[in-house]
User: Fold these one by one.
Assistant:
Number 1:
Amino acid sequence: RGDWGQKWNLAGVYWFRGAMKSSAVRAWALREVLHKPNHSIRYFASSMDNARQNFLRPLQLLFTDAHGAEFRRWLYRHRLPTNFEGWGEETMPLVQTDAKAPIALTIKGVSSKREGYHGNDLILDDPEGAEAEKSNVEQVDALEFVSSMTPLLINPAVGRTVLVGTVHGPDPLAYRILYENLDPSVGAPEGPIEWANKNRTWKISWK
């Protein structure tokens, strides 16, 4: 499928359950905010509890209680706030050079209010969930959400949107990403899939 290259804006990470896709995306997000001052990422999940459990809390533990936490605190001491000030149930701020920069890492559920936020990158993790096996409501909601994400970016020309998930239901968002068809008026496409990322708008990692 090929490398995504350096200049990409839209990506889908669709791995089978248990393949550590959420871990991979957490690592990417943490690298981005630690090594890019004033960078911000918002993570969306099907619920706030899922967002907290699968994303924010594991990242916070890397610096507080996990093995090697003391070394990581020393390594990134210039980016970590004193006594982890501001780290809470929905936020993980880092030391920024711009006082007006958004909080580095924040989380929300897909049903949360989205107006008023502007960040550098967005992550949407498994918005359909297993309930999509029973009805298409979650798939329709996920499609609408993805279609409305661009205004949340500070600069859509360079901002990145990453979708993470497992295939659920008869017409999953994952298939629409594969075919690069997010038009809600058009059903599941047919025909060959373009697998070469160099030729795609939506870069994909699929397994």
Number 2:
Amino acid sequence: VKTIKEKHIYKNGTDTFIYSFNKFGLLTNVEKSDFLSGTKQKMINTYNSHNQKINTDWYDESGKVKYRNEFIYDKEDNLIKHIMTHPKSEGKVKRYFNYEVTFYIYDKKRNLIERKELSKRKNSIKESLEEHNKYQYDSIGNCIIEENLNSKGHIIERKNNKYLNRKLVEILTWQKFEGEDLYLKDKYEYYEDGNMKSHIHIVYMYGS
């Protein structure tokens, strides 16, 4: 078990963080003292037998759970669902969400091919789509197409990625912008040691 103490020193005070790790080097606890609010918070991580995080809970000074995160995995140890639960509104503190949930889908090679994030607002009966992405890969696992979809399943943004020696060298992006078609190009160059040498961003066509 290892503990690290960290201080953020400001002009008028200091925030203190205490991090605790288990014998596998995994973060288990964070204790935070906030000098501005004069409050203390605590975060606790829980892991399964595969050392995968299954819960993250944030507590206030009274010991009440402020936020709860739950992580669910499939038999292949892929993360397939993440649920973030929000607390109830109390006094002047208003909470606008009941929960947020993200679903993940993978192919046979364990590449992420779809990610969908939904939220449930407290004043709403139905869930709302926050973000929906789909991904395609080449034979060696490079992500070559990324798509962003709206609530009707229509593509509103597409990225075509090109690689050279497994390094990303170009992204061609199409997206809907103010009712028009916007095209962007990002080009990357690298030094021999693999560090990035240059990045050029181009808006090269606007309009239908």
Number 3:
Amino acid sequence: NDFHKRVYFMILNSKPKIYLFNVFLGLLIFFVLVIFRLPNFLNPQPLTSDEAFQASQILSLMNGDGFFFYFDGERYAGIFYGLTAIPFFWIFGVGTLAYKLPGTLFYALNILSTYYLVKKIQPTAALTVVLLMIFSSPVVLAISTHNWPLGLTCFLGNLIFLNFLKIKETGGSLLRPVFFLGFFMGFSIYTYTYSILYIGTIAILFVL
């Protein structure tokens, strides 16, 4: 046990290394999730009407149309999660698979951030929660192959709660978590307006 702690300290004894380690973990989870979803990706279902509508606007943006912040007629959904499909368009070409992959990437980030959140609340349950999220039900598996704002919003919600807990732990003495709490709140609302529910929950927790 002491040996493992020493190895962990040597590997992750600086913030850049910690960030890189988290990037590695996030990508590892992403690749595992993709493998589990190969049948869905090898024979992808057509894009939903919302996905097709939004993907067409992202493609228009790629082809030189004027920049915009919200999808046409959808002031409740920012375009960031649609923009994340662009690198996949470059790698795999324009198609259903490329537009759907960001949904699985956001789910991977959601799993990683959930691990850290549960580790703060109930450390002994953190790994179990991660395994349950990776080996998920068919419904969750299907949902996580769609590029909807839900996946990104859940990830941002976890970041909001992590920064909130950091502020509670430090008594608000550190400016960094305060800044990121406000940033992620604003970005979450921009991504999907209904994420205001997270903000309301945080407000109630502050009062309590």
